[in-house]
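Document type: protein sequence-to-structure record

Subject area: structural biology

Format: plain text, a pair of labelled lines:
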Amino acid sequence: MSVPNRHFLTAISSRRCSRPLAGVLGIWLAFAAQACVAFGFEDVVKKAEKISEQGYQSPGANLPESLSNLEYSDYAKIHTKDGHALWGDEDLPFNLAFFHEGMHYDTPVKIHTVVDGEVEDISFNPDDFAYGDLDIPDEDLENLGFAGFKVTNALNDADRMNEIMAFQGASYFRTLGRDQTYGASGRGLAIDTALPSGEEFPAFREFWVVKPSKDSQYLTVFALLDSPSLSGAYRFVLRPGEDTVVDVTSQLFMRNAVEKLGVAPLTSMYLYGPGQPTDSLNYRPAIHDSNGLLVHDGGKQAEGSEEDWVWRPLANPDKLMVDEQDVDSLKGFGLLQRSHDFHDYEDLNDRYDRRPSVWVEPQGDWGKGQIELIQIPTPDETNDNIVTLWKPDEAPQAGDELDFSYRMYWTTHEAKFHSPDLSWADQTRRSQGEVRKDNLVRETDGSLAFIVDFKGPGLESLEDGATMEVAADVGDNGELVESRVVSNDAEGGWRMLLRVKRSDGSKPLDIRAFLKDGDERLSETWYYRLPANG
């Protein structure tokens, strides 16, 4: 019987374990030696440390014009042939398929598997790919490599392997839970994002994927990161499910000092939504992969601060907006898609209602730092214009060794990541401010109105006779015209209504508000940054 994925496995590395010795003791020692030196995370750490001591060598692009000039629609025609996925004929819970080089994916990455502790190399073979109706000369397919890989698993259908994770481009990766579609992305690391000096993009240059057993519930991937300023070792442990979980371990070795180190960065897309309606006529009420940033600061919580849980509705500004939130002890942050109701999007093709939220929980104490939110103007939904990341208070210097571990959740069940004691902003809507005249006619008054619906346990536990209030602040570039809260008799919870006037339209307006009963805080802090000229 032929083995369809035979092309991928081309070489087995020399054994790293000592040869068997004579006698029982020798056999035991040989087994122990083999067990001790099976390939693992520490091997990647050693490799990262070694190359950090060397000068950075940029990998060269190797694409002919027939592949580098492809448009996206043509590049999408290239895929691993049916039946050619690695491990596809072995009845394993995970298979691997590979991304072909092409378009701007012009630098190959090395991919290996780890089988019984030993490294096996995987080589590119064009016979494993289908090219559709593309006419790529045979000679242009020589000496190419992989642009990345994807992991498949029978998550949604026991009889079909579905893509659940992908690594492609720089240090980007995406993951899916059950019945989700790709939206926000994770990145291994970000350096100097949104600085005038320009961003540096670290890239995963080499991967090792541990071959699973037939009953494995998880998949382990090791990765080597490299860039002019640093090198690093990564371990990803993928656990698919209704909410897919990825445990990330990283160890970094600094070649140079950097001004901004972005840890656990996330990227997403926000074009428009009820919080920032579109000026164009469009049947879709919203187009976004995420609609807000949620930050949980355990240090602020310990102090009884009003800023321990902060929700930041996203915006598509006219010009770049970068701002920070100080964090004493980060417990979690993420880009969330708080609505999964199809009628909030009405898009049968892109199914924004199935885009997952991504929540990051640090493992261990990362110390003091800032959560940075970067919002970039975009004219359409093809650009990831939202970036968020954690950066340490002290910028790393040359020679520093850093390690960060965290858990990532890809979920459509956001309530489990909200405060158990506070209610949350379920939706934000923006409108012209208006007043109702004595003749019942509504007239605009030059203000902007924000309508925020709060739901959750902080409101459900209210006792009879509670006095609900709004605590609001608009900073020094605006005037708070009105703030009030009313019971949402239609859907439960409470509705906060704010009317504000901005003093200088060329500058952003920062609006913060939360609900309270006397001195008792009942909701997370809703923090909206109205873009300049927006």
The mean pLDDT is 91. The chain is about 10% helix and 45% strand. The first strand starts at residue 9 and ends at 12. The two ends are 64 Å apart (CA to CA).
